[in-house]
Design brief:
The chain has 106 residues and is mostly beta strands. The chain has no helices and eleven strands.
C-alpha cells in the first residue's frame, strides 16, 4: 500500500538533498516520488525547430525513491514514519508512528 500521497509535505532523509523539504507533486510508478524543487538536475537539450523548442541547459526535477523520504511531522519538526490503522468505526487512517497523531483517511 502506498503511504505517501500527492500533496504531502516530505523531508529527504538521505543523499545529496538530505534535509530538503518539499511537497510531493507526483507519484512515479510504485516506488518513486517527484518532489517540488528537490533533486534538480541539469539536462542539455537539443533544439527542435519543428516544435519551436530552443536548445540549451534546462534544470528539471528527478524522482526519488520513497525509502529516501519521510513525511514531515509539524509537531516534532522532523521526518516521521507513517502507519495505517483501522479505527473503531471501521475507518482506515494514516498516523505518525512517533506520537500516534492521525494525519488523514486512506
Amino acid at each position: 500500500m502506498k503511504r505517501l500521497k500527492t500533496g504531502d509535505e516530505v523531508i529527504v532523509t538521505t543523499g545529496r538533498n538530505r534535509g530538503a523539504r518539499g511537497v510531493v507533486t507526483r507519484l512515479v510508478g510504485e516506488d518513486r516520488v517527484l518532489i517540488e524543487n528537490v533533486n534538480l538536475v541539469r539536462k542539455h537539450r537539443k533544439p527542435n525547430p519543428q516544435q519551436n523548442q530552443p536548445g540549451g541547459i534546462v534544470e528539471e526535477e528527478r524522482p526519488l525513491h520513497v525509502s529516501n523520504v519521510a513525511l514531515y511531522n509539524p509537531a516534532t519538526e522532523q521526518g516521521d514514519r507513517i502507519g495505517v490503522k483501522t479505527l473503531a468505526d471501521g475507518q482506515r487512517v494514516r498516523y505518525f508512528k512517533s506520537d500516534g497523531e492521525v494525519i488523514d483517511t486512506v
